Amino acid sequence: MARPKKKPILPKEIYVMPNADKKFQESWSHPSKKNNPMNLPHSFRMIIAGNCSRGKSNMCKNFILHQSPPFERIFVCHASDLASEDGSKEWQDCGGEYLPILPPPSHWEAGREEKRLLILDDICYEAMNKTQRAYLDRSMGFISSHCNLSIIITTQNFFSVQPSIRRLFNFYVVYRPDDLDSLNTIARRVGIKPEIFEKMFDELATGRYDCIMRDLTPDTPYPLRLNGFDVIEMKDDHKIKGE
Predict the structure, then answer these.
(1) Average pLDDT in the 162-185 region?
(2) Which of 54, 56, 226, 239 could cysteine-pair with 154, CB 3.0–4.6 Å?
């Protein structure tokens, strides 16, 4: 009679089991990410929040330019009917494909072998119907991480994006709002002490087109940045320094 096989002794620690749906995921250890804070690890979820004419779309395009390996397809869902193929040409310079409405999650399951980006540009999230809100929630929470899709949302009002969506971002790009109360609340939402966040805008992001970037991705070497590139160092005495 054959002896029963001994059960292997497992180490007393959590074993990380590979996820077949996430083979496309990048990290900061990827060789292409070295020494370039703007080359973000795909797939990511980002909000760019600021008043009108502050440079949100331009910042978004800079992230696209620095993405390596590059996105193979870029989709744009815009707030205005002028964004149709016969209207606004704002996103044509980066090869953006126009989407009249946010598609259902099943739309993204096909073509998952392609590295893709979805841009939601100044959508009125408060006016979304229940179905569209559900589509967005599912796209942010599952589709992005399992179907090879990064998502960038641009908005003039940080708080117009529903809380369940805001909690799923791992990149926050914030331009200074006009009122101090909003600034303090945004600081708490992105995990920065309000007095420190205010100090960053008072001492570093002093121009109209300056922004503070909060990076919550795993093992990021650049948790805080000015205008995407310049690393912000935090001192023990709450002093800040931009490089």
Answers:
(1) 91
(2) 56
User: What's the chain's length in residues?
Assistant: 243
Which structure tokens are listed for 177? Answer: 């709002």
pLDDT digits (tens, 9 = 90+) for 126-137: 778 889 889 999
Inside any domain, residue 197: yes
Angle at 186 between CA 184 and CA 192, to 5 degrees: 75
Nearest to 115 by CA among 30, 5, 26: 26
- Say what the pTM is: 0.88
Q: Which residues contact 227 (CB under 8 A, 6 or more apart)?
A: 205, 210, 211, 213
Structure tokens at 99: 């989407």
**CATH classification at residue 158:** 3.40.50.300
Number of domains in the chain: 1
Take residue 3 and report the two structure tokens written for it.
Answer: 């002896």
